[in-house]
Amino acid sequence: YVFCLLVQIYLTDTIFLH
């Protein structure tokens, strides 16, 4: 569950950055 959360946060962060 923690890994999924981290991945989701990372993905959203990348989307926001790009």
From TrEMBL:
Top-level taxon of the source organism: Eukaryota
Keywords: Mitochondrion
Protein name: ATP synthase subunit 6
Species of provenance: Pocillopora acuta
Upper taxonomic lineage: Eukaryota, Metazoa, Cnidaria, Anthozoa, Hexacorallia
